């Protein structure tokens, strides 16, 4: 049952801490009921209790490990079948530290499962349900390393480039359906992800590290402004527009029947 004047239900993954927890608070303040998903049931319940008291919205918590197929399938079916859900924040993700050559393959597979496979399945389910309803919003949390992969390790950077590409393509697929899509590309944000990955963030200059609250507020402002891609740290939107324009300049020459003369 929705709250009076509810904006619908926002499903937030990775909602127990960091960026996901801030999204939960901000969306509750906007009048959304919430379905909060994470592995830590105790933290979810604590956050939910505070948000109910503060904002008077309906909140459901769902303990799920989104690296596990069974839990992903359950959440996917919930998205497809619950017509009250009107917004998905695809936030759950993990980072790893170290070189690809030295990495634990199982750890990399876990990252790809969460950052790529789970995100894709949930986005697909949301796209289907929201298209049927003629409304809805899908927010995919990527990273600026999608644009500058040399600055971080290969697998994490590649996973976030995938999120950006998926969002851009999905936006074209959903044109005219009433469904909004946004990719958010944070820079370094003060969350628990760094400690969990074993990365020592203490050496990062303070002027490069954004608080999660400021990041989410900027991302939601970008959503309100209709941005497909929001880069909270970027002062001049024209730089992003120039980056996109450069792609379109190349587009007519990316597929021809013969190789370029420089290869002959």
Would you mind describing this structure in some detail?
This protein has 264 residues and is an alpha/beta fold. The protein has a single domain, classed as NAD(P)-binding Rossmann-like Domain (Rossmann fold, 3-Layer(aba) Sandwich). Helices cover 46% and strands 15% of the residues. The protein contains eight helices and nine strands. The chain has a seven-stranded parallel β-sheet, sandwiched between helices. The protein is globular, with a radius of gyration of 19 Å. The termini are far apart. The model has no long low-confidence stretch (mean pLDDT 93). Belongs to the short-chain dehydrogenases/reductases (SDR) family. It comes from Pseudomonas kribbensis. This is SDR family oxidoreductase.
Report mean pLDDT, rounded to a whole number: 93
Order of helices and strands: EHEHEHEHEHEEHEHEH
Please give the radius of gyration in angstroms: 19 Å
Helix percent band: 40-55%
Q: List the domain count as a whole number.
A: 1
CATH C-level class is Alpha Beta
Q: Order of strands side by side in the largest beta sheet?
A: 3-2-1-4-5-6-9
CATH superfamily, called what? NAD(P)-binding Rossmann-like Domain
- Based on Cα principal axes, name the global outline: globular
Number of strands: 9
Instruction: Calculate the terminal CA-CA distance, rounded to whole Å.
Output: 67 Å
Low-confidence stretches: none
| Tally of separate helices | 8
Structural class: alpha/beta
CATH architecture: 3-Layer(aba) Sandwich
Protein name: SDR family oxidoreductase
Organism: Pseudomonas kribbensis
InterPro entries: KR_dom (IPR057326), NAD(P)-bd_dom_sf (IPR036291), SDR_fam (IPR002347)
Pfam families: adh_short
């Amino acid at each position: 049952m929705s709250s009076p004047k509810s904006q619908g239900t926002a499903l937030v993954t990775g909602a127990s801490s960091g960026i996901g927890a801030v999204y939960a608070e901000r969306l509750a303040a906007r009048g959304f009921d919430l379905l909060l998903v994470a592995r830590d049931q105790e933290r979810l319940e604590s956050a939910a209790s505070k948000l109910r008291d503060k904002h008077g919205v309906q909140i459901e918590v769902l303990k799920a490990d989104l690296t596990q197929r069974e839990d992903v399938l359950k959440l996917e079916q919930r998205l497809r079948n619950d017509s009250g859900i009107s917004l998905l924040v695809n936030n759950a993700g993990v980072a790893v530290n170290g070189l690809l050559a030295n990495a634990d393959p199982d750890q990399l597979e876990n990252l790809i499962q969460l950052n790529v496979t789970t995100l894709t399945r949930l986005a697909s389910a949301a796209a289907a349900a929201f298209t049927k309803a003629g409304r809805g919003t899908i927010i995919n949390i990527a990273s600026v390393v999608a644009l500058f992969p040399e600055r971080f390790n290969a697998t994490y950077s590649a996973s976030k480039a995938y999120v950006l590409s998926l969002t851009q393509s999905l936006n074209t697929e959903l044109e005219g359906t009433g469904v909004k899509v946004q990719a958010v590309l944070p820079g370094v944000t003060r969350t628990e992800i760094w400690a969990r990955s074993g990365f020592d963030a203490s050496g990062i200059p303070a002027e490069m590290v954004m608080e999660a609250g400021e990041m989410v507020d900027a991302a939601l402002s970008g959503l309100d402004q209709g941005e497909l891609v929001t880069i909270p740290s970027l002062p001049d939107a024209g730089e992003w527009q120039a980056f996109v324009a450069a792609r379109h300049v190349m587009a007519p020459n990316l597929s021809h029947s013969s190789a370029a003369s420089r290869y002959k």
